[in-house]
Amino acid sequence: MFPKFPLLCAVALLMATAVPATAAGQSPTVVRTDHGLVRGVSHGSYTTFDGIPYAAPPTGPLRWRAPAPAATWPGVRDATKPAQRCVQMPTPGAGTGAGSVLGSEDCLYLNVTVPTPKPKAKPKPAGQKRPVLVWMHGGAFLGGSGSDYSAEQLAVRGDTVVVTVNYRLGIFGYFGHPGLGSAPPFGLADQQAALRWVRANAERFGGDPRSVTLFGESAGALSICAHLTSPTAVGLFQRAVLQSGSCLMSFPRGALGPGTPAYQPFASQADVQTAGAEAARQVGCTAGGGDEVLACLRGQSTDRLATAQLMQSFNRPAFGNALLPVAPDQALASGRFHRVPVVLGTNRDEMRMFVGLSLAAFPIRTENDYRARLVDAFGPAAPAVEAQYPAAHHPTPALAWAAVLTDRSLTCTTLAAGRTIAAHAPGLPLYGYEFSDPDAPVLAGLPANPGFPYGAAHGFEMPFLFSSLPTERPLTGAQRALSDRMVDYWTNFARTGNPNTPNAPLWPLLHPQSVQSLAPGPGGIHPVDAYSAHHCSFWDRLAQ
Fold first, then answer.
1. Which of 105, 152, 217, 350 is catalytic?
2. pLDDT for the residue 366
3. What single-letter DSSP state applies at residue 104?
4. 123 pLDDT exceeds 90?
5. Would residue 218 show up in a list of annotated catalytic residues for this protein?
6. What backbone phi and psi angles, to 5 degrees, belong to 447?
7. How many CA atoms lie within 13 A of 304 on its CB side?
8. CB-CB contact of 365 with 456 (8 Å)
9. Whether pLDDT at 450 is above 90
10. What is the 3-state secondary structure (H, E, C) of 389-444?
11. Which strands, in side-by-side order, build the sheet including 41-42?
């Protein structure tokens, strides 16, 4: 079985010919897709089309199969509200009842947000379309939904079409079994099916199917890493933004709690198949050959499979199949990735979110507590790590531990991924950022820990791009200004492959050591030597 990561689960659940919409006799909220008409809802400056199917429901005999085409429909389909999220465990404390699950297996839907043309605005020249941004949500491949992210700011201010996507999660998205052979990771196959839908339908919503930017955070960024190295994703997107997740990301032993095993985000096909055989035994599907076992498994109820244990056993996409022939880190190292402009970014205090979630269960109050965590994670190298990160140089031992994990697991691995891309594709537009707001609003649901500020923790940049995400307080005026700059950077990158705009501080190409710091206030946006600030030369030596 795969190692269980309860903390990751908590993180996941926290977190034809185009027919123009304004054609004669057609409402601006009605669009003809390649499968039928959909009616959205106008919000004044923007219009949303929610719950559009991009694949058939992966239920019954279609459970654990590659996404099949969606059925066409007659008349006008209601697209005024999102579809159900994909099956996931409820957020702790949500009051949904013991053993209950959220969502449905019938969940392969997406949402489209488009700006509403201003009444007196000049029409776009014939053939000029908006760039398309396709968002893959995070959540440790265990939770989340595209409908959690309202994209009006990116659409209206950035003049873009934004698509947010649901994809299968946990055991429903990443299950493997000897009877399935070298089946692809179904959740990643869902995402590629959504991208094919975008290619077929973007123009119908005013978007350019030849200008698609894939962007995502955490597990969403890891998904994009997979697509960058996937031969079956060729031509499906032209640019990529990876927020807090790269092809080289990993966690050391003990990062998610004392004794938890090291974490690699991708798993071999053989390991996934072994875990699947064990899962089949657990639910009593053992009689007969592979086909009979799979028929038994497909006959199990959603609730029978969506247990915490089984969901957490399958949250690592498998490699060794047509979609991911090799592990993404190996593909990147050998130069087997799509040559598209890329933005790679992290947050300055990434791992404070993970550490903050676990402090009640695993407090780090003293230097001895801190030293024990270092020994658990790094073994004989622990003294060298402590010499680089002495507890006395940090406000608390817990913050020292979070700094170690941030640098080791995210910042330095992301910079290394950038260097690897640049080495194989010199001249490829490549940009890096570090979200650095020390007072970013805390995401709702995170526990308060006295003496442990979250700072610019994992996921804290997202409310600056998506206004719908709940936080403990709204953005300040200076933070709203930073939000505007970030939206400008993201959407101009989607439009041109270069984030720079005339009225924002220059964002230089990624240097081996420096990235663009994104923080509010005068001078908050500027290049910063992240390589030195995060002790990356030390981690590079230790890795060797």
1. 350
2. 97
3. B
4. no
5. yes
6. -70, 150
7. 12
8. no
9. yes
10. CCHHHCCCHHHHHHHHHHHHHHHHHHHHHHHHHHHHCCCCCEEEEEECCCCCCCEC
11. 41-42, 46-53, 109-115, 161-165, 130-136, 207-217, 239-243, 342-347, 430-435, 514-518, 526-529
Residues 167/216, Cβ–Cβ less than 8 Å? no
Name residue 38's beta-bridge partners.
31, 77
Residue 451, classed as helix, strand or coil, is: coil
Q: Active-site residue 537, yes or no? A: no
What tokens were used for 493?
Answer: 């990158």
pLDDT of 396 > 80? The answer is yes
**Residue 487's pLDDT is what?**
97
* Backbone torsions φ then ψ of 30, nearest 5 degrees: -120, 130
- State how far the Cα of 486 lies from the Cα of 49, in Å rounded to an integer: 25
Per-residue DSSP letters for 334-375?
Answer: TT-S----EEEEEETTTTHHHHHHHTTTS---SHHHHHHHHH
Among residues 458, 483, 534, 535, the one annotated as catalytic is 458
350 belongs to the catalytic site: yes
Each residue of 141-192: pLDDT tens digit?
999 999 999 999 999 999 999 999 999 999 999 999 999 999 999 999 999 9
**pLDDT tens for each residue of 412-446:** 999 999 999 999 999 999 999 999 999 999 999 89
pTM above 0.70, yes or no: yes
Tens digits of per-residue pLDDT, 180-212? Answer: 999 999 999 999 999 999 999 999 999 999 999
Q: Which of 145, 218, 436, 483 does the annotation list as catalytic?
A: 218
> DSSP assignment of 76-102, as one string?
EEE-SSPPPPBSBPPPTTS-S-TT--B
Phi, psi of 76 (to 5 degrees): -110, 120
Burial annotation 507-520 (CB, 10 A radius, 16+ → b, else e): beebbebbbbbbbb
Nearest to 159 by CA among 89, 95, 200, 211: 211
Tokens, residue 45 = 């400056």
